[in-house]
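R.M. (postdoc): so does anyone remember the format we settled on? I'll just put the C-alpha cells first.
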C-alpha cells in the first residue's frame, strides 16, 4: 500500500501543529519527512499550481539552456530560487532537459525509449540526473546548485508506463509542483511515443520539507 498526497499533507499539518521543527543551514525552521514515498496523485501538496510559470520552465528545459535568464522571454527576472542557485552569469547545473536529452549526458531519453521498446518487462530504463562530479560542480564559480533529482526509472506494466522519481531533496511548496509537472510531461512524452497509456508516478524523496516562510500554507 502506498501513501498518497493526502497522507503527506496530513503529516505536515500534524508536524506543524505539534511544532516538530528542524533548522536548515540558515537557521530557518522547517518541517520535514526523511525518506518519503508516496503516489504523486495530485499536482500540488500545498498552494496552487502556477501554470504560466510551469509552461515557461518546461519550455526552458526543452531549450536545454543552462542560463536562468532564458526562463522568461519578456524581460522578467528569474525566480529567486534560481537566482540563489546560479553563478553571477546565471549559469546552473539543473536544466533537466539538458540532463536527459543532450549528447553530453549520453542521450538518456533516447536510451530509455529504446530500452522500453526492446525490453518492455525490464528494470533498467533509468534517466540519471545527478552525478558524482556534482561534488566539484555544485559550487563552481559561485553556484549553489546540487541537483535535486537523483534519477527516474520507467516501467511498463499492464500496458501502462509508470515512473519512479527519486529525489535527493524536495521543497513541498514550489519544488514539488514544478518537478511534478516536469515528470508528468516526460512520462507523457514517452508513453505517446510508445503508444501506451500512463500509469502512476511514485515519488520517493530523501528529504521532503516545508520552509517556515510557507507555514501559512500548511492547512
Amino acid at each position: 500500500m502506498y501513501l498518497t498526497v493526502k497522507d503527506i499533507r496530513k503529516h505536515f499539518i500534524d508536524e506543524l501543529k505539534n511544532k516538530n521543527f528542524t533548522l536548515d543551514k540558515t537557521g530557518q525552521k522547517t518541517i520535514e519527512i526523511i525518506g518519503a514515498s508516496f503516489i504523486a496523485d495530485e499536482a500540488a501538496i500545498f498552494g496552487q499550481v502556477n501554470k504560466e510559470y510551469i509552461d515557461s520552465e518546461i519550455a526552458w528545459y526543452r531549450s536545454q539552456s543552462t542560463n536562468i535568464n532564458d526562463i522568461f522571454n519578456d524581460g522578467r527576472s528569474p525566480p529567486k530560487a534560481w537566482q540563489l542557485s546560479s553563478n553571477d552569469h546565471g549559469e546552473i547545473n539543473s536544466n533537466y532537459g539538458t540532463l536527459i536529452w543532450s549528447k553530453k549526458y549520453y542521450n538518456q531519453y533516447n536510451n530509455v525509449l529504446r530500452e522500453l521498446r526492446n525490453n518492455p518487462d525490464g528494470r533498467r530504463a533509468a534517466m540519471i540526473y545527478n552525478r558524482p562530479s556534482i561534488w566539484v560542480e555544485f559550487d563552481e564559480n559561485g553556484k549553489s546548485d546540487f541537483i535535486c533529482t537523483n534519477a527516474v526509472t520507467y516501467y511498463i506494466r499492464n500496458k501502462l508506463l509508470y515512473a519512479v522519481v527519486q529525489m535527493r531533496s524536495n521543497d513541498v511548496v514550489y519544488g514539488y509542483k514544478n518537478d511534478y509537472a516536469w515528470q508528468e510531461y516526460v512520462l507523457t512524452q514517452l508513453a505517446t511515443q510508445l503508444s501506451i497509456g500512463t500509469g502512476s508516478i511514485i515519488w520517493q524523496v530523501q528529504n521532503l520539507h516545508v520552509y517556515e516562510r510557507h507555514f501559512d500554507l500548511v492547512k
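R.M.: ...and that's the designed sequence above, right after the C-alpha cells. Also worth knowing: The two ends are 25 Å apart (CA to CA). Residues 83 and 90 are 7 Å apart (CA to CA).
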